Description:
2 copies of one chain form a homodimer.
Chain A: H1 4-13, H2 20-31, E1 36-37, H3 38-46, H4 54-66, E2 70-73, E3 81-84, E4 94-98, E5 104-107, H5 111-129, E6 132-143
Parallel strand pairs in A: 4-6
Antiparallel strand pairs in A: 1-3, 2-3, 4-5
Helix pairs in contact in A: 3-4
The structure holds manganese (II) ion (2 copies) and zinc ion (2 copies).
Chain A binds a DNA duplex (30 and 30 nucleotides) through residues 15-22, 37-39, 51-56, 58-60, 77-80.
Amino acid sequence: MPGRHHWQHRFRENVSRWTLPREIILDLLSRSSRHMSAKEIYGALYALYPGLGLTTVYRTLELLHRLGFVQKVTSGDGPGRYELRGEGEKDHHHHLICTKCGRIIDYRDFVQEELDLIKKTEETLAKKHNFLIQDHNIEFLGLCEKCR
Amino acid sequence: MPGRHHWQHRFRENVSRWTLPREIILDLLSRSSRHMSAKEIYGALYALYPGLGLTTVYRTLELLHRLGFVQKVTSGDGPGRYELRGEGEKDHHHHLICTKCGRIIDYRDFVQEELDLIKKTEETLAKKHNFLIQDHNIEFLGLCEKCR
DNA sequence: TAGATAATGATAATCATTTTCATTAATAAT
DNA sequence: ATTATTAATGAAAATGATTATCATTATCTA
Lengths: 148, 148
Ligand SMILES: [Mn+2]
Ligand SMILES: [Mn+2]
Ligand SMILES: [Zn+2]
Ligand SMILES: [Zn+2]
């Protein structure tokens, strides 16, 4: 869990200014293990920083996503959800999504096998379709413990 | 590509009535190889059947999805897109999604290896999280030929 | 053929996200 | 430090996709 200075540095590298909204949003995301929507983030920070605007939350999340700091999960319907993306491959994971209540569960099983297959597939597809692959998602849909 | 009677029969099984909107939407989907949004479907059918309502298109797609006849693709932003799901495993495929123009490309490479891994993962996860897995998605995100 | 009710379609409502634009604040230059 | 430059912010309105409402219509059952 990198601290302020780490982020501050990475922001400067990207010609982006280090601002209070950005700091508190990153701070919240690094303290939370959940997958939060823009409105949830806004709500959680509003008490601490009532001046914050929902628009800024959206803009900040989009920036963080563009810079690769944050992963966006779009589970069918409902708002987009965001989580910090860890540095190395240790954090690589995918999701189980409950189609009834929207719960999102992280899983990290068979990551190595997955990455092997993904890599092979990526290479083949990139060549075959002249497509520049930047990321991949895997998700399992179904009913969680409570909803089944 | 199953015909009217096939669908009609499967609808009856599900206590759903066989109506004109349902017939023409299924017919369109089975003639199109694309991934169409509700509005695109509405637009394509409007000439033929001007009485059709966009609401009905949404409702029909949701029903088809719920019955498992149709697959929904939610590529980050933009409207949901729908495609008929083939009967057997011959049709099993996943997607390459261009994050710039939204283009969706089907791929069917390494399906067997994928299914092996998916199956193993599914079993493990279902047990570990007491989760009822009903479906899975794999998608590669990046830039298509035109957009890279 | 008639009755029961599922399905439809117009409209309004909702929800998530984006755009606009005047104001503020962060950084660079002095 | 002070100032100038311009990115970032936040309020408000706009947009886009989807869903809810409800009176009307069509399908299917008896
Ligand atoms: Mn996660
Ligand atoms: Mn497809
Ligand atoms: Zn659930
Ligand atoms: Zn493209």
